[in-house]
Structures are given as C-alpha cells and as structure tokens.
C-alpha cells in the first residue's frame, strides 16, 4: 500500500500503460483520477478498481487539463502524484511531406500536454510531502528508428522538460522523473493505423509475436512492466531520484541486434566466416 490515501492523477488512463498504472495505484491505496479523451474507457477502468474517478479530458485542451487538476485537488486538498502519460503516434508523415499543422498537433499532444500537466498540477502539489510527477517519454527519444520523427522529437522534448522542471521544482520538494517504454503491447499501434475493430485482435496477436523477439528479453513488453517502473519512481523508494529517466525496454536499446541475437551475425562474424573460406553473400 505504497500510495495509501494519496491523490493521483493519470492521463491516458483508459487504455494500455495508463490503464495498468491507474489500476496499480488504486490497488496500492490511492484515490486515482483516471483521465482520458475516451470517457467510456476511463469509466470501465474506474469500474475495475476501487477509488478511481473517471474524468473526460483532452490533454490538447489546456482548459481541460486545468479543470482536471483542480477537480482532483478540490476532492483531496491537493495532488500527490501526476502521471502525464496520454499519447498516440502523432503525425507519421516523413519530414519532406509533413505539414506544419500535423507537426504542431503532435507536439501539442505529446509535449505541450506534459508541460501544461505540470503547469496546472504544481500549484496543488507544493504543500504535499513526497509530491512528484512522472512523464511518459519513449525509447524513441534515444535516437531514430523506433518511431516517426515528430513523435521521437516530442518524446526527446519530454526528457528535457523532465530535467528542467526537476530543477525548477526542487525548491518546492517536488520530484520530476520520466519513464521510457520500449515496445509495449498496447492499442497505440492499431490506433495509429486506424485498424477496423474486427482486425484488432489478430493485429494484437501479431504484435505479441513480433515483440516477443524484438529485444534481448525474449517476451513481449506489457503495460504492467511500465506501471511497475512508474510506481517505483512515484513511491518513497524513488525519493532520491529526480530529473531521471528509467528505460524499460527489455534491452532493445542496449546494443546492436547482433550483440544479443545469434541469428543476426555482425561484421566480425561475417569476416571470420570469410576467413574460414565461406563465399560472401551465399551463407556457405
Ligand atoms: N506502447 C508502446 O510501445 C509505447 C512505447 C513508448 C511510449 N509509449 C507512450 O506511452 C503512452 C501511453 O500509450 P499506450 O501505449 O498505453 O497507448 P494506448 O493507445 O493503449 O493508450 C493511450 C491512451 O491515451 C489516450 N489519449 C490519446 N489522445 C489523448 C488526448 N488528446 N487526451 C487524453 N487522452 C488521450 C487514448 O484514448 C488512450 O486511452 C503514450 O504517451 C505513448 O506515446 C508507448
């Protein structure tokens, strides 16, 4: 019961990582405000746990973020933990095709939303011992290759925002950290492709299969993997951490594929095979 009596706000709580984290906070005693664009989804999460209040909130609308934080604070005299997590794939157009409006929408959804979440939560967190914020970044912030460019740039911005606000809020005793999920089996992929509902189960089974072999830890990443990391950062066990980011990715960013996958030989393996008389390019 690490969060007994704490007031916790989670955005993007109707699905995936946000849902798992909201339920974990609730299981450990928190009063959770489960906010999402998808109010029906947030309500069904509220029905799954105790002390969860579903709130309709579009994190692209600053007035709705303020209303969310004010509602949570009014109910419990302040806010203890905020998990700024809502998100989606954003504009996936390549850099030589993306329009300014699509770029801006992606930044509003993934970066401005986090800044404004902090902006409107902090006035309610200043007098709360142990108050802290966790922001969802991504391994896409590590470098290219994991996501479209606009998404990756926004998620890198979330890391920098985390560090800057950790220093700004230190005098108030408020910690700010980030989590960087790897490939996690949620609806984010099928939603990005706007897949018809009757294909989603099949697609998720395929994601499960592919993501089981995408990194050194040979299983799919699941929402609870991230929820556990967020809860650690938000709990007293993380009380010496601020401005930090936890990469939770099954090791996908640790090194090139050949360093952990025997089926993917690297340059040295190729040269050794050549030295042993193999014919380059034939596999013999
Ligand atoms: N799944 C992954 O592999 C992965 C990897 C790295 C980072 N992330 C990040 O994790 C976070 C959660 O994503 P997920 O994978 O759980 O996806 P998800 O699609 O399962 O959940 C995202 C939730 O955010 C909500 N949402 C979307 N736009 C919103 C808005 N404008 N206002 C309020 N709510 C909104 C959706 O309704 C949904 O409930 C996102 O920030 C995402 O970028 C996911």
UniProtKB/TrEMBL annotation:
Q: What is its EC number?
A: 1.1.1.-
Q: Which InterPro entries match?
A: KR_dom, NAD(P)-bd_dom_sf, SDR_fam
Do you know which Pfam families this protein is assigned to? adh_short_C2
Q: Provide this UniProt record's keywords sorted from A to Z.
A: NAD, Oxidoreductase
Give GO MF terms, alphabetically: oxidoreductase activity
> Which Gene3D superfamilies does this one have?
NAD(P)-binding Rossmann-like Domain
Domain Ketoreductase positions: 6-159
**Record's keyword annotation contains NAD:** yes
Family affiliation? Belongs to the short-chain dehydrogenases/reductases (SDR) family.
Q: What is this protein called?
A: SDR family NAD(P)-dependent oxidoreductase
Q: Identify the species of origin.
A: Novosphingobium aquiterrae
């Amino acid at each position: 019961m690490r969060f007994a009596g704490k007031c916790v706000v989670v955005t993007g709580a109707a699905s995936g990582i946000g849902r798992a984290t909201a339920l974990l906070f609730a299981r450990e005693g928190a009063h959770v405000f489960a906010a999402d664009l998808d109010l029906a989804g947030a309500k069904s999460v509220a029905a799954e746990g105790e002390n969860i209040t579903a709130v309709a909130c579009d994190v692209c609308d600053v007035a709705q973020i303020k209303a969310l934080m004010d509602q949570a604070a009014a109910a419990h005299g302040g806010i203890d933990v905020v998990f700024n997590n809502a998100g989606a794939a954003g504009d996936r157009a390549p850099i030589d095709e993306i329009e300014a409006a699509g770029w801006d929408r992606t930044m509003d959804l993934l970066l401005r939303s986090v800044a404004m979440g902090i902006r409107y939560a902090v006035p309610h967190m200043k007098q709360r011992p142990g108050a802290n914020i966790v922001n969802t970044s991504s391994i896409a912030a590590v470098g290219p290759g994991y996501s479209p460019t606009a998404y990756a740039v926004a998620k890198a911005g979330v890391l920098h925002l985390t560090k800057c606000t950790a220093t700004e809020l230190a005098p108030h005793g408020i910690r700010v950290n980030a989590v960087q999920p790897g490939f996690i089996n949620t609806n984010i992929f099928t939603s990005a492709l706007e897949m018809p509902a009757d294909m989603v189960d099949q697609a998720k089974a395929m994601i499960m299969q592919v993501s089981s072999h995408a990194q050194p830890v040979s299983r799919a990443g699941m929402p609870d993997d991230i929820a556990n990391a967020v809860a650690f950062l938000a709990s007293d066990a993380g009380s010496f951490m601020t401005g930090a980011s936890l990469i939770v990715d099954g090791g996908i960013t640790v090194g090139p594929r050949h360093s952990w996958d025997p089926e993917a030989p690297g340059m040295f393996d190729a040269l050794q095979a050549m030295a042993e008389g193999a014919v380059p390019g034939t596999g013999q």
